[in-house]
Amino acid sequence: MTRPEARLRQLQPTDVEAVHSWASLPEVCRYQAWGPNSLAQTRAFVAEAAAAWHEEPQTRFPYAALLDNEVIGMGEFHIRSLTHAQGEIQYVTHPRLWGHGLGTAIGRQLLHIGFHQHGMHRIYATCDPRNAASAAVLNKLGMTHEGHLRHTMELRDGWRDSAIFSILATEWRTNTSN
Fold this sequence. Notes:
The chain is α+β, with helices and mostly antiparallel strands. Helix content is 31%, strand content 34%. The chain is built from five helices and seven strands, in the order βααβββαβαββα. The mean pLDDT is 93.
């Protein structure tokens, strides 16, 4: 089976409609503190995310994920500590494409960006422990489940826990050389 070839490019203010196509859906934001978004909320999010490309120093790198030139998701790389070379990744895809490996493809590119362009030592990601699909993506990326953090954010249905996963630069190099 061939991997889907999603490519990343900088998120742009013109991506509002595409982002809103999933940010407005309850199933996409079920495990998130945001959403479902109104169009105004999506416009504000995209404007803020696109502006991150012009911040100094830049620590947030939001990308649109494209498949056949259609924006089908997003990925973000965040520098969480330059001193300790720590980063974080986040990703989302439109639910009509769930289960096709696109989250993994986005995550793989974000890890490459973090390790190769930004020289990170450790990159982590979190997900709601109830979100088995997201945990599966993080496992496919070669990330190690480090633990369970209690009550990390409040959602519509109460406090959410977070599962935390990470990968080290040495593990990434070993995984990508195979």
